[in-house]
Amino acid sequence: MFWPATKICGQTKEKLVAEGYCVKCKAKKEIANAQEVTMKNGRPAIQGVCPDCGTKIFSIQSSKKS
């Protein structure tokens, strides 16, 4: 089962702004403390926490470069 895709809203020099699905809140939320990470298989992902409940949000991104 796939959750709705994460949408990267923008990136500033200090802060990455991304939106993802929080499983605990059951809603799309802006990811707090977002970090770009690379998984073992080389795919990019965004990792952070939900600003409301503090649950981890991990969202896999598209591996295609645009």
What's the short version?
The protein has 66 residues and is mainly beta. It has strands at 7-11, 16-22, 27-38, 44-49, 56-60. The protein has one domain (7-60).
Task: Outline the structure in words.
The protein has no helices and five strands. With 66 residues, it is an all-beta fold. The chain has one domain. Strands 1-2-3-4-5 form a five-stranded antiparallel β-sheet, with no helix packed on it. Strand 2 (16-22) and strand 3 (27-38) form a beta hairpin. The chain is elongated and about 30 Å long. The N and C termini lie far apart (26 Å).
Give a topology summary:
Layout: E1 7-11, E2 16-22, E3 27-38, E4 44-49, E5 56-60
Antiparallel strand pairs: 1-2, 2-3, 3-4, 4-5
Attribute tags:
single chain; 66 residues; mainly beta; 53% strand
Task: Let me know the average pLDDT.
Answer: 82
Unreliable stretches: 1-5
Strand content: over 45%
**Biggest sheet, in brief?**
5 strands, antiparallel
Number of domains as seen in the coordinates = 1
- Total helix count? 0
Question: By helix and strand content, what is the structural category?
Answer: mainly beta
* Rough outline: elongated
- Report the radius of gyration as a whole number of Å: 11 Å
Strand order of the largest sheet: 1-2-3-4-5
The count of β-strands is: 5
**In angstroms, what separates the terminal alpha carbons?**
26 Å
The helix-strand sequence is EEEEE
